[in-house]
Sequence to fold (152 residues):
Amino acid sequence: MTDKIDYNQLIQRAFREMLKALLVRVAQEGLPGEHHFVFVFDTTVPGVQMPGWMKAKYPEEMTIVMQHWFDNLAIMGDRFGVTLSFNGVGESLVIPFNAIKTFADPHAKFQLAFEPIHDAPEPDPDPDPEPEKAPKPESGGVVSLDAFRKGS
Fold:
């Protein structure tokens, strides 16, 4: 366990879980009204499955849209699968949630940008070469939030 709480990583995981829950709902009920989804994903992430011609055309990143026609939307733990139409031909894709770079619903004017999740803690960029001789005292005081609030 590290000595730091990585709030950004927790938020990123929560956003991915929210996206997963949203896709489960869409798989069950369909897209409501004019909502549609735009995904940008990293095609190099392990677990991405796509036809060879697509991988050759999009070797690093691809954008897909789920709007008027999509089929076989399935959520499978850490990834989802969907069949989309490319030049009138249905093609199946499997996209791990950790491959998604951005998600947007233009109708709702909603967008999320995702950062990679690293399960192993990152090394300290400037480790102290000498061990500490005595533990540093911890501050137990109260912190005022006034310094962090925007001016009124």
Q: What stands out?
A: The longest strand covers residues 79-86. The chain has one domain: 7-119.
